[in-house]
């Protein structure tokens, strides 16, 4: 798609064909056109605009080169003005409508780190030596696992830059394969005694007892926190026999697909059905949240829930701290111990069977109903 459908005299039109950009214009009665070899994405468009303005300026000032050698030899001009930070910013912009809000936040964090490390360094000037220095810089501030994730984002940005015709080499590839990350710590599920201590401590707290049903739901279903916070009564059967899980709460009150982008239906145990019946309001509609914030009725702030409610409850209960997300690991572990197969558990919690096999052990069971782990 061209930037302008019809060019005025002395202007250069940007054209798109098969995903690639080219320029077309007329000068002294002769028509000109040549391909830039750039992909039709935001940064490619920016480079094409720069080239078009250069040609227009040359035509206006009498410096136009009708052989086009001057312009074809200068197609790398954009890369000579492209810093690593700008490359990451443009990469994130191109992915804005394709990835979740949390992923975009990660891109922004990576961009800031790279900017602090070398704000003016051109993307084309990065070498394997530079990647090593950046790795050492990162490891003084974040964990090896987080650093590896940062490198993965940067590597993807450089590959995107190459595909857009802005870069020729990607120095991050070698470091990606050589980056040594310690093995991920195995899940540490809560024992039944710990679960009961957490629930009773929360129930006895005037400040936090409101959140008890939510915590019991997380322990009893293995749902991700965002899935529970975004759960609406409209996706739960009238008799609470089925719950459709296909959306997840994202920060800033946004809604999106589940982490695996795949909907699923779960079948609550009798205890879980009873819990939901107890908290279901007399009057509700399809969009009413199952676990609304106590004061506003909107979404519960997951940061506040995790850092204040959850952490303080564990301290008061005398239970060693694990992340709120470990309620999911707890359900998986106890479900497998009760006889559910890894395939069945993966289906229930919306994860890959390989992930369940990698971190857990299970036996066999064909029941659809959620295992009752005693919550």
UniProtKB/TrEMBL annotation:
Return the protein name: Tyrosine-type recombinase/integrase
Q: Tell me the PROSITE patterns matching this sequence.
A: TYR_RECOMBINASE
* DNA-binding keyword on record: yes
Task: Write out the similarity annotation.
Answer: Belongs to the 'phage' integrase family.
Q: Which positions fall inside the Tyr recombinase domain?
A: 185-375
The record lists the organism as Leptothoe kymatousa TAU-MAC 1615
Which key words are in the record?
DNA integration, DNA recombination, DNA-binding
Q: Which InterPro entries match?
A: DNA_brk_join_enz (IPR011010), Integrase-like_cat_sf (IPR013762), Integrase_catalytic (IPR002104), Integrase_recombinase_N (IPR010998), Min27-like_integrase_DNA_bind (IPR022000), Phage_Integrase (IPR050808), SAM-like_dom (IPR025269)
Domain of life, per lineage: Bacteria
Which Gene3D superfamilies does this one have? 1.10.150.130, Intergrase catalytic core
């Amino acid at each position: 798609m061209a930037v302008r459908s019809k060019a005025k005299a002395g202007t250069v039109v940007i054209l798109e064909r098969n995903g690639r950009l080219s320029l077309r214009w007329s000068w002294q009665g002769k028509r000109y056109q040549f391909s830039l070899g750039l992909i039709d994405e935001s940064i490619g468009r920016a480079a094409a605009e720069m080239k078009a303005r250069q040609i227009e300026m040359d035509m206006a000032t009498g410096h136009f080169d009708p052989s086009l050698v001057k312009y074809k030899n200068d197609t790398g001009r954009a890369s000579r003005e492209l810093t690593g930070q700008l490359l990451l910013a443009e990469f994130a912009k191109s992915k804005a409508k394709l990835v979740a809000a949390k992923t975009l936040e990660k891109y922004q964090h990576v961009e800031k780190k790279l900017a602090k490390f070398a704000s003016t360094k051109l993307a084309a000037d990065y070498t394997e030596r530079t990647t090593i220095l950046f790795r050492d810089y990162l490891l003084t501030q974040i964990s090896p696992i987080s650093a590896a994730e940062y490198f993965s984002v940067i590597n993807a940005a450089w590959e995107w830059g190459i595909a857009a015709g802005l870069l020729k080499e990607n120095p991050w590839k070698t470091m990606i394969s050589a980056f040594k990350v310690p093995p991920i710590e195995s899940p540490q599920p809560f024992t039944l005694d710990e679960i009961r201590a957490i629930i009773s401590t929360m129930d006895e707290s005037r400040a936090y007892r409101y959140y008890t049903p939510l915590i019991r739901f997380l322990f009893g279903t293995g749902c991700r926190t965002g899935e529970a916070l975004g759960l609406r009564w409209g996706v739960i059967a009238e008799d609470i026999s089925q719950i459709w899980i296909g959306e997840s709460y994202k920060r800033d009150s946004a809604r999106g697909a589940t982490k695996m982008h795949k909907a699923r239906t779960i079948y609550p145990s009798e205890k879980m059905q009873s819990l939901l019946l107890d908290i279901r309001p007399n009057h509700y509609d399809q969009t009413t949240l199952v676990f609304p914030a106590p004061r506003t009725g909107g979404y519960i702030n997951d940061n506040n829930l995790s850092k204040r409610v959850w952490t303080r409850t564990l301290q008061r209960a005398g239970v060693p701290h694990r992340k709120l997300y470990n309620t999911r690991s707890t359900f998986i572990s106890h479900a497998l111990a009760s006889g559910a197969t890894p395939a069945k558990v993966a289906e229930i919690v919306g994860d890959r069977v390989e992930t369940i096999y990698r971190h857990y052990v299970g036996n066999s069971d064909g029941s659809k109903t959620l295992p009752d782990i005693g919550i």
